[in-house]
Amino acid sequence: AVGGSGKTADLTQSEVLVLMCIGYFQPITRAELSSFFGKEISRDFIGHLRGAGLIASGPRSPTPGAPYTYVTTKEFLLEFGLDTLRDLPDFEALEDAGLLSKERLLAGDIPIAIGGVLEEDDEIEGCDLDVRSEVPE
Description:
This protein is an alpha+beta fold and 137 residues long. Helices cover 34% and strands 9% of the residues. The radius of gyration is 14 Å and the shape is globular.
């Protein structure tokens, strides 16, 4: 349930899915996010989420090149009506139901894998989240 100041009503499905991945797998690099979705996550896309205050830079990854990682912020928690990240739906239950698996996602074995570059206004096919609906104030 969305419970924040209403910014989430303006998020695209793609943005919500990327935020979900960051929420569950943080700290995470842009390259790892790209692996999840089967298409490159653009710097502009990440910049948009950072500009909205929903994510921030985390520690540098220990992988070659030491890329930046991304983590969620307090604003992320507020926007999604969470007190802590522990309030996210239980990851193991999602895995058991076959809905989410980091290993499968990183291997590219996801039903929504698509090619190209994910820009901030792109949609991820196969996802029917309605995140742009009116949010009661």
